[in-house]
Amino acid sequence: MKHNFLKSTLLAGICAITVSACSSGTGSGTAGDSTAADTSSKTEIKPSGAAPDWGKSIKPEMQAVIEKLGSYGDKPIESLSPVEARKNHTPTDAVMDLVAEKNIPIPAPQVDTVGKDLALNGGNIHVRIYKPKVGNGPFPVIVYYHGGGFVIANLDVYNASAQGLAEQVGAVVVSVAYRLAPENKFPTAHNDAFAAYEWVVKNAMSIKGDAKKIAVVGESAGGNLAANVSIMARDKKITLPLHQVLVYPIAQSDMNTESYVKYAAAKPLNKPMMAWFTKHYLNTMTEAKDPRISLINANLKGLPPTTIITAEIDPLNSDGKMLEEKFSAAGVKVDSKNYDGVTHEFFGMAIIVPQAKDAQGYAASQLKKAFQ
């Protein structure tokens, strides 16, 4: 990723505003955060051009992020090698640059972070652990899985989501850097995801966590991984997560669904990118039908209560809806929210995008209820 010192500093604090601003939504900010929330809400983020053809309903703040991302002039990910694609700018870069340009103040983080390497699953899996600064614990624990199609992105790109959840829920968050493809093909990421979860179950006390209060959260590919972790925990008869939050999860392999067709050219995720991700993660295309990839074909009975969050302008919008129907049919309690006018990757943009602020607050409230 293309970071400089300023961007790294912004990244470290970006969620403090994310959290404080949530006091006006379904999340709960603290009294001490109200000034920062007021400041950010007065900063107007406007796009410079007309709404794109692929997303006429796009919200202005969301469009501004997409415009900034396009301004870098990077080549389309689907035209690059994975190594090259990982050097492209990310939506997080676009958000941080807008934050800097608009002089949005960054309050101090409410969590401490530490990195840790786990010798698991025949290799090293790096995790970043977010611990609340206030209180001695034991805290509830969220095991978080980032997106990126199993091929790109990292813990920094998804820092805002992980830190925001830690601060709003008052939980320890363990953000998992599972190994990426094509260097590590299917099912490495899936096995890494479960190995990290199992480590958390066994070692929760060592990170000030409560082993009886664990949830899983994931975005996109990470949403797929989070659901698979619950399935594997059920099948291996270890502690089940109390709740799972799946944010625009990859849930099936048919790229001709309603949303794939309607938003084939959307940004920052489009249909060609999904085909590129699939090609690089899977050993053969027949594996796309594997129930670990096509969750809608998996046995979903006995899984924990589930929250599904989707974005309107997203090829994966139909995936989330189809998965919700399958969970309900399997007797799993499901709550869901679809956010109009926003794209894939919006969830971590709460510092700028109001719908993301609401979505993080919604996820946090669902998790807090589960932990109670």
TrEMBL record:
Alpha/beta hydrolase fold-3 domain boundaries: 142-347
Keyword Hydrolase: yes
Entry keyword set: Hydrolase, Signal
Chain positions covered by the region annotation Disordered: 24-56
Protein name per its UniProtKB record: Alpha/beta hydrolase fold-3 domain-containing protein
Chain intervals with Low complexity compositional bias: 24-40
Organism whose genome encodes this protein: Pedobacter ginsengiterrae
Coiled coil: none
Signal peptide: 1-21
A Pfam family annotated for this UniProt entry: Abhydrolase_3
